[in-house]
Amino acid sequence: MTTELVRVGIIGCGNIGADHIDRVANQISGARVTALFDVATDRVKELAAQVGAVALPTASEVINSPDVDAIIIASPGEYHAALTLECIAAGKPVMCEKPLAPTVEECEAVLAAEQAAGRRLVQVGFMRRNDVGYRHMKDNLTAGNIGEALILHCEHRNPDVPDSFTSEMSMTDSVIHEIDTARWLLGEEIVRVRVIAGKQTPNAASHLNDPQLVIMESQSGVIISVEVFVNAKYGYDVRCEIVGSNGVTSLGTQDLGQFVSDTRRTVTMPANWRVRFGDAYRAEIQDWINGIKAGEPRGANSFDGLAATLVAQAAVRAVKSGETVEVPVLEKPAFYA
Amino acid sequence: MTTELVRVGIIGCGNIGADHIDRVANQISGARVTALFDVATDRVKELAAQVGAVALPTASEVINSPDVDAIIIASPGEYHAALTLECIAAGKPVMCEKPLAPTVEECEAVLAAEQAAGRRLVQVGFMRRNDVGYRHMKDNLTAGNIGEALILHCEHRNPDVPDSFTSEMSMTDSVIHEIDTARWLLGEEIVRVRVIAGKQTPNAASHLNDPQLVIMESQSGVIISVEVFVNAKYGYDVRCEIVGSNGVTSLGTQDLGQFVSDTRRTVTMPANWRVRFGDAYRAEIQDWINGIKAGEPRGANSFDGLAATLVAQAAVRAVKSGETVEVPVLEKPAFYA
Amino acid sequence: MTTELVRVGIIGCGNIGADHIDRVANQISGARVTALFDVATDRVKELAAQVGAVALPTASEVINSPDVDAIIIASPGEYHAALTLECIAAGKPVMCEKPLAPTVEECEAVLAAEQAAGRRLVQVGFMRRNDVGYRHMKDNLTAGNIGEALILHCEHRNPDVPDSFTSEMSMTDSVIHEIDTARWLLGEEIVRVRVIAGKQTPNAASHLNDPQLVIMESQSGVIISVEVFVNAKYGYDVRCEIVGSNGVTSLGTQDLGQFVSDTRRTVTMPANWRVRFGDAYRAEIQDWINGIKAGEPRGANSFDGLAATLVAQAAVRAVKSGETVEVPVLEKPAFYA
Amino acid sequence: MTTELVRVGIIGCGNIGADHIDRVANQISGARVTALFDVATDRVKELAAQVGAVALPTASEVINSPDVDAIIIASPGEYHAALTLECIAAGKPVMCEKPLAPTVEECEAVLAAEQAAGRRLVQVGFMRRNDVGYRHMKDNLTAGNIGEALILHCEHRNPDVPDSFTSEMSMTDSVIHEIDTARWLLGEEIVRVRVIAGKQTPNAASHLNDPQLVIMESQSGVIISVEVFVNAKYGYDVRCEIVGSNGVTSLGTQDLGQFVSDTRRTVTMPANWRVRFGDAYRAEIQDWINGIKAGEPRGANSFDGLAATLVAQAAVRAVKSGETVEVPVLEKPAFYA
What we know:
The first copy, chain A, contains 10 helices and 15 strands.
């Protein structure tokens, strides 16, 4: 592995983009931030100054800069496909935040371009694959500690969302993580999805179904039950359990610390996803950089991104129709084996 | 409250019946066992001798014995209604194990007879209402600690069942406990049920759907999700969580103790329902006896028994049809207010 | 075992005495309360009326009443020996709350009288021996799950005490439970004790050392470390861990339930010893009654009471002197084998 | 903060040294490894090749190399002081693994040289200060959640040690971590120490006292109780609890994940200190590098190193004598304020 620093350009410098800037600049090994783009020009100049990078006037200039070896895309999802295609055209590795693209067609265009380019350049930001807890679950399943997987229970609770958040976004922004987690843990595709919206929280905008219960099934029939509740108020709480034929394995409680007073044991929980998955994000970016330096692609690839969008879009149709939606199983190109 | 001992007759002396004999004779206050009936005549004589009771040749003789003040019915479910009706006719309090009866019609006959008799004589054995953990959940909900209930998650796992156990029995024998728990916790009726059988465990008889996921809805739209897995192998594991608009409350882990060795923390779980709910059963029978002595009926009543059977029968139809089944909401007679 | 009810007389009807009345009358099998004595005559009459017993003018009349088969002594410790001796003289089984007596001499007088009477009549109220958690620890040790015991860590925290409570009473009232627990878990005697009073809580009376750290050693050299903190404010918290040569075993957390809100998981702890050890007390009294009916003495005996007082008195001397105090090992009479 | 990489030389490339090489090269931001020294010349060459560094023939050449900006010392403790002094002479920041030096005199020489040099160059490797769990404890104490600290309970258990490990090394290698932790958590010095060796594990060499119980006191009288058990067999288990006047705060269980089978919940614990404190070590080194780049010294300083050695040496005397040993309180130079 070379000791040269990978020079990273970052497109989109909002919450998660700013976190990625800090991670590449200050928390991981082997990389530095050299160029940034965001529509908020004042903010991006300030961020650039903090890490010794330049703020460029367009995303294309970041992608094509001779001072940029690899790109992180953290802009809104609607721009993901176009920017990723531009990275492929430039022959540079790219870490695109989820989703790879909001539509299946755009995802397919990315896969086509990447295959035409002849080498794997695209990673999709499904950071849970780097979370210690999920890895232990996968290890327990793989080691045979619980027999074969039969049911996957997931809860995905977020303290709150802005009023602009929609019932469909619960699928494309939140449940998409469980979709990838399920595919990765179980090693098979999701073929069916239905969505149940029961009693609604008084704390959400009236147009939003919240909570929703998503019931999916995998190729072998594993039931994947996902509660998604984006105005859960009490904190950020992500849970997962695999029920196997001989036992179960689950994430721990992720508590951060405790104190006891007044006949109450008070345990602090992570306030949001940035706290809960901070270590996983750091590990994801470190692993991505290590992969670039070693010349080996790692993490979730374009096909994973396509498969997740395919299921998320089916879930969106299930939200709208109230019906069970079948999901076609795509053949995985050998290129992604 | 009188200090006279309530003289209890017990009909059906299998596993749970024998436990009830021991509870009344040796674990609670204010009662003693005076008469028993079971078709296994040798066994019942032995049990009778142990507690200073008599074994009578028929259930009717137990019910009508002048030495019996109150009756526990622990015989197979098909006999429950007829025996309960006989207790009502004798004017004696009766604790009937769940279900009150396998059919809605039989349950209705019990309610009619009890109302005609003019006083509440029947309690149904939904012992979870006496479990410390479930009571804490209900207290937390009632105290407003979690806002209003939106979702109820339940898991009901049993280590194994005999080959004669059917997919329908998962509803009438196992899920019926969650049905009563949901009604009791939420204070409203269940109006809809569907059952999903996904990937099946290799450890069950081929005719049995196991595990199954039961999705119910309450009048106000609370989603009640119940995983029932009767060959879970690893132990007896019952869990419950109420998701509220401002927080969640759940049963604890029910672990019995722990030791640590070889880089493993090993926590002992209850092996079966007799261990897990032993305290709840004891509290249930004590409370029943206290109610008899105080002249105040307590616990789950005939209407609760009817409502549970109504939903369980709908779940049976859902198992058979694979469809969503609507459950009519019965009007609760003022007699049971 | 006879089905006759054991008629219990109770002497001392304060907090714990009243709890025992309720237990014998309403929570256990095979006994009833027939006679009471307390210096608070109004209160004792009220309690007697509630359970259908009589309030007698002296303790002696309770002990010698023809309507009393067995006696519970819950009066102040200074009366324990005299009352226990009177029970022995009457030939009746007695459950004496801890301590058996405040002085070693009085305890020895009890043992002498009991041996002269020729049968075991005395049980001492060390209820932890009936606690599920401590039993699991003992089972784990006995089963060889943790190798041989090397260290015993104990914490004994009480929310608060009245101003009249003294540093010595922390030994005779609180630590005496750990003394018995250690002897029972380890199966050997305590031979050495020292007491360290470090920084004192601002929440205690100035004359009281609180918290104190008690370091004891057993015959085989097991170190028994006891933190006693009687104004711990935050709740009642008793913990215990055995460190073995191959592993450790400990009490669980004893939490009663939980709810989650506002990024905090709030777990309710027992507020006091009556809540924490309610089940153990009930089991202790049930077991005592069962033993009487079976004609087999059970639970902690007079020798256990003597041994505990011997160590507690050594601890009192250690509090006063600040020195390490050696404790002689008494020979256990075959009568108590 | 500059974006230039800090060029790090590492002296001593055994277990912890090799981990530090990997951390600087592959896990943190802002630094790279440029030069190594170890007496095991083959091994050091291999390690150097892996990270693009050079292996130099002496430690002095590493320290004085123009390609080295800062040094990590991970050689045996006896060389720490001399090497640290050489770093100070070279005017380069140094992160010295604990202990700063085995003797008080050597530590004092380091402080004298550093003060003469006129700026803070030395950090001591007490990585627990960077552990999330200990930080939460300190935050809870500082926030007033538990009142004022009265007792500190610590357990330090290691699975096993080589036969060459001595009773004194339990103090200088293991308990020294608790000494620093106590000083850092409580913000005051330790003034008294005694060591009790009770029953010994059959799993240790006969010359070794194991386990040992160390009782220390702070200036304000806080009792610090440390169980050190270096052949605990079952795993690596470090625990800590602060008992305050109004509540307690403690480390969590540090479990890594769980699965359930065969009526047992099996929770995986960290196998050794490298797993348990991996994140803390990484954070420590990252923080050290950040401090160098910002020109601000951070972490434990020379005075902390001296104070820890002073107490550890007193503990060694306490092991040998069996007596309570008083520890003088050193005045902290303003230079280290």
